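Work Package 4 report. The design task specified in the project plan requires that, given a folded chain encoded as structure tokens, an amino acid be chosen for each position. We show below one input record used in the internal validation round.
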């Protein structure tokens, strides 16, 4: 395990990477695909999955600002993108699959996706059915966490087949990333096994652990989780939790504040064969490092780790505005100014993916 504790050291080492992240406009395209597991998780039993693609756009592309929250008084600043802009050139781009956090959205993590796109990657993200802020949350969406990987797989298949996007993708260079339970998704995407019974047992022993308590975004007790997985509606899908969910061709995984790591038996983490990098905040009260990120970093062979002092869980969301800090519950949980946290995360990710996938 490689551990780097200082943001200053990291920033000095990869300042050229940070500059690359700010170069050139970013395009965005939205599309829909289908996933047979989505209907089980979606509140309206739709099989659709929303897909967002960020990519390097031509220099004359005109970007629009992305904000989240009430018009005129947004709670979050995400960044800027050029809708449906042409790709910057005909070079095939490395692909990064991205999974948002529990109850989040692709757009909420756009600060990260657009930064990678500015550096030359094509970033493919989804809104996970039944577990995103744009739709009604469901119990199935909360507990069938391994099906998030299937959403990423379906999105990858869709962009590969798209005549506008597909020719711009280098499918020999695919990485995966995610925040919180999205970090868990990234680890499962590269071969980690899932065992819901292990998580249930852990939470019975440690009921106050951050991931065992009902989440802010959707309150569900550990007893609720157990009943749901044993229910006639979900039992058949729950039986597939321990299957191999790895996405073929993924060569590297970057996990941001990974959560629900206790769903992953150590022997499965130890068998991950691709490079893995993990970043988290030392002051994270939700995805507690000692039971999540640190466990994964110690168990996965040669995993790289960076710990950000004083940083909490929601610091990794898009930057909170003054209005957000005053009125948005998730912003109230932010521990420190977010921009340095974002910069450190982007720098580490760009350095990691450059080494593991090659220069974009």
């Amino acid at each position: 395990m490689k551990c780097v504790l200082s943001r200053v050291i990291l920033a000095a080492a990869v300042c050229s990477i940070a500059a690359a992240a700010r170069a050139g406009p970013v395009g965005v395209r939205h599309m829909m695909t289908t996933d047979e597991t989505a209907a089980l998780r979606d509140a309206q039993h739709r099989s659709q999955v929303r897909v967002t693609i960020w990519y390097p756009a031509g220099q004359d592309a005109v970007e629009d600002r992305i904000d989240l929250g009430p018009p005129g008084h947004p709670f979050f600043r995400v960044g800027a993108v050029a809708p449906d802009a042409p790709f910057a050139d005909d070079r095939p781009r490395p692909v990064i699959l991205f999974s948002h956090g529990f109850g989040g959205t692709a757009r909420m993590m756009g600060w990260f996706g657009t930064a990678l796109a500015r550096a030359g990657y094509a970033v493919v993200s989804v809104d996970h059915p039944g577990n995103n802020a744009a739709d009604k949350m469901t119990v199935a969406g909360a507990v069938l966490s391994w099906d998030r990987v299937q959403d990423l797989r379906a999105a990858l298949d869709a962009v590969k087949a798209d005549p506008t996007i597909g020719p711009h993708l280098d499918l020999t260079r695919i990485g995966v990333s995610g925040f919180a339970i999205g970090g868990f998704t990234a680890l499962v995407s590269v071969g980690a096994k899932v065992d819901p019974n292990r998580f249930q047992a852990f939470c019975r022993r440690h009921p106050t652990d951050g991931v065992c308590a009902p989440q802010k975004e959707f309150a569900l007790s550990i007893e609720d989780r157990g009943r749901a997985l044993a229910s006639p509606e979900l039992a058949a899908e729950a039986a597939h939790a321990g299957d191999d969910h790895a996405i073929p061709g993924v060569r590297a995984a970057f996990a941001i504040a990974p959560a629900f790591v206790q769903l992953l038996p150590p022997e499965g983490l130890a068998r991950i064969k691709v490079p893995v990098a993990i970043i988290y905040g030392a002051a994270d009260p939700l995805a507690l490092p000692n039971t999540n990120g640190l466990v994964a970093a110690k168990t996965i062979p040669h995993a790289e780790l960076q710990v950000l002092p004083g940083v909490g869980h929601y610091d990794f969301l898009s930057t909170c505005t003054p209005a957000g800090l005053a009125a948005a519950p998730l912003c109230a949980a932010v521990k420190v100014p977010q921009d340095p946290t974002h910069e450190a995360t982007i720098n580490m990710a760009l350095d990691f993916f450059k080494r593991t996938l090659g220069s974009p």
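Residues 2-21 have pLDDT under 50 and may be disordered. Validation will be extended to a larger panel in the next phase.
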